[in-house]
């Protein structure tokens, strides 16, 4: 029986970072991956999704060009197969780069499914080999939820399949109201599909600032995306004309594809975690403490499988902190309190810190600053769009509690603003910073007039 210092199950962002850093400290490391190195983000998540978002934005660019003096001549055409082939080439390159990184760190990668036999032994399902590990890291990520609760749900696709459809569907329904649903609605609509978002709740992006949520939906509607809110599907049937979708209430619509984007679940089924004594939560998530340790002393977990914050940079930070703690002799705790996040819809939407509703529940006095304006590019393009930028401030300490925006490059702008929030910036610090003109970002520094003050009794 081979023995290693660290056995990592899952070669996604968190597992790869943990393996590389642990090996750098001198640990003998094996990573087992049953699918492809790179995990959800690289293979069928963030990276291919954003590549397709870029592709979808060209339709707006072609429309806007005339206002800037460009005559494009014949109507531009789009080829789905060419886009998917280019995407696949880039994903192959990135997977190779991840593999080369692990190889350079002298980490052994085994292309096989691994399950726990005991708290210190792992079995490779394909080969049957048993490997002993002093420390085990669970980094298996998550998977799209497929159980939609209506007859015909098996006819739906998820984000896993959406990237490799044989052709662009002409009519698409996207079920869900979160990041994945809105980003794919942007992709399909921008590439020319008639797109409808079906969501059971009263407003999209649950958990975001309410004003930001409503503004994004309004902007997406202006670009042609349809929304059915407070709506659920009763059944889905395959017909010669496509998929017949019956909604609760009896309304029927036809689609060529229905995509489920109703959430993700931690990928823990069949790993043998219960047999090894690892405690799981109600969604199957691995329960961990502030140092990513499970209920078993030598078993840890990082990333989406823990259902803390399902974002790639969070998984990477957790994996690095784990390796520093266990193999580097440097106990490191990850701070999950100030994490910037973006929705790569059109327009882009990003936020960091507390939304207005969260701030008002947690603080006695909350000041709101906002700016709405027509972006400079739209003045010549003729596009009727509005950017929204918002700052939430503790009215008693002047500390910025949260800020965000809906508009071009929101993710890039809010990412840098997150540095200021992490350092404890006050509204006065933003006011004292010289603005870069002309830019959208300068609006965060020039909001001098308070829009509202909310005082909780």
Note the main sheet. 7 strands, mixed
- Termini separation comes to 66 Å
Query: Which percent bin holds the helix content?
Result: 25-40%
Q: So what's the overall shape?
A: globular
Please tell me how large the radius of gyration is.
Answer: 24 Å
- Spans where pLDDT lies below 50 across 5 or more residues: none
How many runs of DSSP E, i.e. beta strands? 22
Structural class, from helix and strand content?
Answer: alpha/beta
Report on this structure.
The chain is α/β, with parallel strands linked by helices. The chain has helices at 13-24, 39-44, 46-65, 80-104, 159-162, 179-190, 210-222, 273-276, 312-326, 356-362, 376-381, 410-422, 427-432, 443-446, and strands at residues 2-9, 29-32, 108-110, 114-118, 121-124, 130-138, 142-144, 171-175, 194-198, 226-228, 233-239, 242-247, 252-255, 257-260, 264-266, 299-301, 341-343, 349-353, 365-373, 387-394, 400-406, 452-455. The strands form five sheets. Strands 1, 2, 3, 4, 5, 6 and 16 form a seven-stranded mixed sheet that branches. It has a six-stranded antiparallel sheet with strand order 17-18-21-20-19-22, sandwiched between helices. β12 (242-247) and β13 form a beta hairpin. The radius of gyration is 24 Å and the shape is globular. The mean pLDDT is 96.
Q: Which tags fit this structure?
A:
alpha/beta, 7-stranded mixed beta sheet, 6-stranded antiparallel beta sheet, globular
């Amino acid at each position: 029986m081979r023995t290693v210092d660290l056995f990592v199950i899952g070669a996604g962002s968190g597992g790869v970072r943990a393996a590389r850093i642990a090996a750098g400290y001198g640990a003998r490391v094996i990573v087992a991956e049953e699918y492809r190195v790179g995990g959800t983000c690289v293979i069928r998540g963030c990276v291919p999704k954003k590549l397709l978002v870029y592709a979808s934005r060209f339709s707006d660019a072609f429309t806007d060009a005339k206002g800037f003096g460009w005559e494009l001549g014949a109507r531009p055409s789009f080829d789905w197969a060419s886009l998917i082939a280019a995407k696949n080439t880039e994903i192959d390159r990135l997977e190779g780069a991840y593999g080369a990184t692990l190889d350079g760190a002298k980490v052994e990668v085994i292309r096989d499914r691994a399950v726990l036999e005991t708290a210190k032994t792992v079995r490779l399902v394909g080969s049957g080999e048993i490997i002993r590990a002093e420390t085990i890291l669970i980094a298996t990520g998550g998977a799209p939820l497929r159980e939609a609760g209506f007859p015909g749900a098996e006819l739906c696709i998820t984000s896993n399949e959406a990237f490799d459809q044989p052709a662009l569907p002409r009519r698409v329904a996207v079920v869900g109201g979160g990041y994945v649903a809105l980003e794919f609605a942007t992709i399909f609509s921008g590439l020319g599909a008639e797109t409808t978002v079906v969501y059971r709740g009263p407003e999209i992006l649950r958990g975001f600032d309410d004003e930001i949520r409503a503004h994004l939906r309004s902007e997406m509607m202006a670009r042609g995306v349809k929304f059915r809110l407070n709506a659920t599907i009763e059944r889905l049937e395959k017909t010669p004309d496509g998929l017949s979708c019956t909604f609760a209430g009896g309304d029927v619509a036809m689609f060529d594809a229905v995509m489920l984007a109703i959430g993700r679940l931690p990928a823990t089924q069949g790993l043998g975690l219960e047999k090894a004594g690892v405690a799981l939560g109600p969604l199957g998530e691995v329960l961990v403490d502030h140092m990513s340790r499970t209920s078993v002393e030598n078993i840890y977990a990082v990333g989406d499988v823990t259902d803390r914050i399902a974002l790639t940079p969070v998984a990477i930070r957790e994996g690095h902190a784990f390796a520093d703690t266990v193999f580097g002799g440097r106990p490191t705790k990850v701070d999950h309190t100030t994490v910037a996040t973006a929705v790569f819809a059109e327009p882009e939407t990003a936020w960091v810190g507390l939304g207005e509703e969260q701030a008002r529940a947690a603080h006695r006095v909350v000041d709101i600053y906002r700016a709405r304006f027509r972006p400079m590019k739209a003045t010549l393009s003729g596009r009727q769009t509005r950017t929204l930028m918002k700052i939430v401030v503790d009215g008693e300490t002047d500390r910025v509690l949260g800020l965000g925006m809906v508009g071009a490059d929101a993710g890039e702008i809010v990412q840098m603003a997150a540095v200021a929030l992490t350092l404890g910036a006050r509204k006065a610090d933003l006011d004292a910073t010289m603005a870069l003109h002309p830019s959208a970002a300068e609006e965060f520094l020039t909001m001098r007039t308070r829009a509202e003050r909310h005082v909780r009794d």
